[in-house]
Design goal:
334 residues; mainly alpha; ABC transporter involved in vitamin B12 uptake, BtuC; two-stranded antiparallel sheet; 15 helices; globular; Transport system permease protein; transmembrane helix; ABC_BtuC-like
């Protein structure tokens, strides 16, 4: 663990370097390879007649931006949920929030013909909030409050329920199946900047609020009586954190679909390197989450070219063994 300010600053610079490398790799690797020189030329002297320039500007820029935002959003949401519930297995994917958002998006698209990003993102927020409320209610243990084990079991059940409902709707509405299928597997392919940019204000506002709550988050590991004695309004802080999680997870699902395990494993990676201080944990989780999703998407393009594996499959391949490891070594998150 990096404990000194100098070591943490150096570690942050290394993580930023990895993020930059992953971003460049996302722009140059794929079915149509692009050289670094060609990438620079496309930025400084764009030629619409060049196939490589066209691929970079029309397809890879948008999926790179989507990967960065979705990866950062899911990672921060996971870190917040683990602190809020004091459960190291908490994440938007495990606790059903992603599945709830995805189900409401499918309902909006299939039953109400919603197509614009602004419409779908509100559907995603509603689904994320509904799933969070259900999991919180089902995770309660009489006389003891929220139980980590019951919460995880409730999240798994809610995820299975919403995914099954979504698949059933798509089977009944074959005309919408192709356009909605990517939400089930998780994909950043085919996203356009025109659909991503309108979501940035909400995402940015939630991110800033999460960073402003860093000091309060550091206190949530203490007992509630101690926290109240320090003058912190626990209920208000938890409500704000819940709203931030819903916005971040809903935005990520609206952009990239059902991508699991990023919100689970990335906070543990950041916590293992930088400790539990949320002033470091949250921004580093965002950087690592963006890097991880960029790397997963790049690898997904190269495994069986010209076909692409959905990025949600790649994150699942990485996240499943780590989830099993965490499940065997559950400890309270401080």
């Amino acid at each position: 663990m990096l404990t000194t300010p100098h070591a943490r600053t150096l570690g942050t610079l290394v993580c930023l370097g990895l993020l930059l490398s992953a971003t460049v790799s996302s722009l140059i690797f794929g079915h149509i390879p692009v050289s670094l020189e060609m990438l620079i030329n496309s930025l400084t002297d764009y030629d619409p007649g060049s196939l490589e320039h066209l691929v970079i500007h029309s397809e890879r820029f948008s999926r790179t931006v989507t990967s960065v935002i979705a990866g950062a959003g899911l990672a921060i949401a996971g870190a917040l949920m683990q602190t809020l519930t004091r459960n190291p297995l908490a994440s938007p994917g495990i606790l059903g929030i992603n599945a709830g958002a995805m189900f409401f998006v499918v309902v909006g698209a299939t039953l109400f013909s919603l197509t614009s990003p602004s419409q779908l993102v509100w559907a995603a927020f509603a689904g994320a909030a509904t799933a969070a409320a259900l999991v919180y209610f089902l995770g309660q243990e009489a006389g003891r409050g929220v139980s980590p084990v019951r919460t995880v079991l409730a999240g798994v059940a809610i995820t299975a329920l919403f995914v099954s409902f979504a698949q059933g709707l798509l089977i009944l509405n074959q005309d919408r199946f192709e356009s909605i299928l990517f939400w089930l597997a998780g994909s950043v392919s085919g996203r356009e900047l025109d659909t991503t940019l309108p979501l940035l204000p909400m995402f940015g506002g939630a991110l800033i609020l999460a960073l402003l709550l860093s000091r309060q988050l550091n206190l949530l590991g203490l007992d509630d009586e101690v926290i109240r004695g320090l003058g912190l309004r626990v209920g208000q802080v938890r409500l704000l954190i819940g709203l931030v999680v819903i916005v971040l997870a809903g935005t990520s699902v609206a952009m990239a679909g059902l991508i699991g395990f990023v919100g689970l494993i990335v906070p543990h990676m950041a916590r293992g390197l930088f400790g539990t201080d949320h002033r470091w944990l949250l921004p580093l989780s965002a950087i690592i989450g963006a890097t991880l999703l960029l790397a997963a998407d790049t690898i997904a393009r190269l495994v069986i070219p010209p076909q692409e594996i959905p990025v949600g499959v790649m994150t699942a391949l990485l996240g499943t063994p780590l989830f099993l490891h965490l499940a065997r070594h559950v400890r309270k998150v401080s």
